[in-house]
Amino acid sequence: MQKTNAINEVVLFFSLTLGLSYCVFWGPLALFQIPTISFVSDITGPVWAIILLMMGGFSPSVVAILLTWQREGPSGVKRFVQRAFHFKIGGRWYLVMIALAGLATAGQLLINRLLENTFDPSLFLVQAGSIIPLLVIGPLSEEFGWRGYALDRLQTRWSPTSSSIIIGILWGFWHGPLFAMVGTSQHELKIPFIGFVCGVTALSVLFTWLHNNTSGSIWTAIFFHWIYTYMAQVIASGVTRSPLYNWLEYLPYIVVAVLITAIWKPQPMMHVQPT
Asked: Which has more confidence, 251 or 270?
């Protein structure tokens, strides 16, 4: 695939995905302060607003699948989706993903402790019932887009680290309307937008490292997104929130991403190229 075509395709993907977020699904809800549904409070809005919230969440994956259909037809979509069922990535990579999320989570708990607050570890068991829904909300709704479609194309021109930073910043800005939308965790917990963007950019570096070491398996991105989302949800529900904690919340992920980059020098993905 020509580099120019790959970059043109990823620019179109980003334009459509962010455009849908800001102009169609989430932006209007934020602008008119229409509540949807909250996972951190008892706020519940009209059904149509909840539907818009959910549709916006699926826009990265839907846009990626539609663009693949437009360019490659049904057979291309089949090949694309099959990459999400590449479960045989090696047992050690499952352990690595759990360890990365666990290490960052331990860092967040340390920050909470240093701020002289407590945390109930039993919350990890209490909230275990949310694991299956969380597979859909986030991992499946986003990862066909960010890692499955955009990352492969960006790496035809830029290094893994540069590609990670590009996706991380745009991934963060895609969430932008949520920070002004009544009921979302970003709004209700008063999470700083700049801190959030830095955090997801660090996560993007980890995603790329995992993606490139597992032959471009979309399942890798889905699984890691699944694990860290669950751990982040539990932590968010159990720590004591303060402005300082909110600014430090993503620091452990940033530290882990820097260490991965410094020690293992992310390598370009040679196994899978966008078709």
From this structure: 251
Distance CA 206, CA 143 (A): 14
CA-closest candidate to residue 108, choices 259, 254, 257: 254
- What is the sign, positive or negative, of the torsion defined by CA atoms of 112, 100, 237, 128? negative
Q: CA-CA distances (angstroms) from residue 95 to 90, 99, 187? A: 9, 6, 33
Distance CA 195, CA 270 (A): 33
Model pTM score: 0.93
97: its two tokens:
């993903």
The widest CA-to-CA distance across the chain, in whole angstroms, is: 56
Instruction: Pick left, alpha or beta for residue 31 (phi over 0 → left; psi -120 to 50 → alpha; otherwise beta).
Output: alpha
What does the pLDDT look like over 238-248, one tens digit per residue? 999 999 999 99
CA-to-CA separations, 99 to 94, 105, 171, 178, in angstroms, rounded: 9, 10, 23, 29
CA–CA gap between residue 156 and residue 269 (Å, rounded): 9
**Which token pair is 266?**
């992310």
CA distance 6 to 198: 26
End-to-end alpha-carbon separation of the chain, Å? 6
Q: What is the 3-state secondary structure (H, E, C) of 6-28?
A: HHHHHHHHHHHHHHHHHHHHCHH
Taking only the tens place, the pLDDT of each residue in 33-75 is 999 887 666 778 899 999 999 999 999 999 999 999 999 999 9
On the CB side of 31, CA atoms within 13 Å amount to 8
In our burial notation (b when 16+ CB lie closer than 10 A, e otherwise), range 115-127 reads eeeebeeeeeeee
Q: Is the pLDDT of residue 167 over 70?
A: yes
